[in-house]
Amino acid sequence: MDLKSEILKLKEQKDVLILAHNYQLPEVQDVADYVGDSLGLSRQAAKTNHRTILFCGVHFMAETAAIVCPDKKVLIPDLSAGCSLADTINADQVKKWKSEHPSAVTVGYVNTSAEVKAELDYCCTSSNAVNVVKSIPVDKEVLFLPDMFLGSYVAKMTDRKNMYILGR
After folding, report:
1. Is the pLDDT at 121 greater than 80, yes or no?
2. With CB atoms 3.0 to 4.6 Å apart as the test, which of 17, 80, 149, 160 could cross-link to 50 if both were Cys?
3. Who wins on pLDDT, 83 or 156?
4. End-to-end Cα, the chain, rounded Å
5. Does residue 142 sit in helix, strand or coil?
6. Which domains does the chain have, with CATH numbers?
7. Contact 151, 125 (CB under 8 A)
8. Exposure string (b/e) for 25-60, b if CB count within 10 Å is 16 or more?
9. What is 52-103 written as a DSSP string?
10. What is the pLDDT of residues 74-108, one digit of tens each?
11. How many CB atoms lie within 10 A of CB 168?
12. Alpha-carbon distance values, 92 to 58, 95, 129 (Å)
């Protein structure tokens, strides 16, 4: 039996949903039930009836799936699969930043660890970041992290003068 057939057989036997980020190799995508971006894959995870989810992506994506599916076992083939953007910020930095801006609202891009997400008021994607920030009263400071390019775009699109960006 070839490797692909063996994987597909085990997937059925073990009741596993395989999710693959669109950055994965074609061979990985070929055995996946769904291929997409991190938001789309998390949505697929949230609606699955499978007992186990194998998330072929970076660490924060598997963590996000585990957050939205607390009753499922979420596996990641490579525990060291990281995201350079997510790795630019940690929960201690967010806590320090919040202590320096106690009345500010924190908005973080989905490309962050679960520990960082736990410190946020809002978690956004690139497709809803502008609307999330627009929903915050204009007199409130906004602390946006960790993507400075998305943050700059959001500040421009919302005409925010009291938005601060932590990250790179």
Report:
1. yes
2. 17
3. 156
4. 47
5. strand
6. 3-75 (3.40.50.10800), 86-165 (3.40.50.10800)
7. no
8. eeebbebbeebbbbeebbebbeebebeebbbbbbbb
9. EEEEES-HHHHHHHHHH-TTSEEE-S-TT---TTGGG--HHHHHHHHHHSTT
10. 999 988 888 888 889 999 999 999 999 999 999 99
11. 12
12. 21, 5, 23
Which two three-digit tokens encode residue 137? 């009263």
Q: Round to whole Å and give the CA distance between 29 and 8.
A: 12
**Dihedral over Cα of 76, 111, 125, 142: its sign:** positive
Token pair, residue 57, equals 């992506």
User: What span, in angstroms and rounded, lies between the C-alpha atoms of 138 and 91?
Assistant: 26
The pLDDT of residue 165 is 84
d(CA 49, CA 85): 31
71: its two tokens: 């009753």
Tokens representing 47 are 């609606």
CB of 41 within 8 A of CB of 61?
yes
The pLDDT value recorded for residue 167 is: 73
pLDDT-derived band at 168, boundaries 50, 70, 90: low
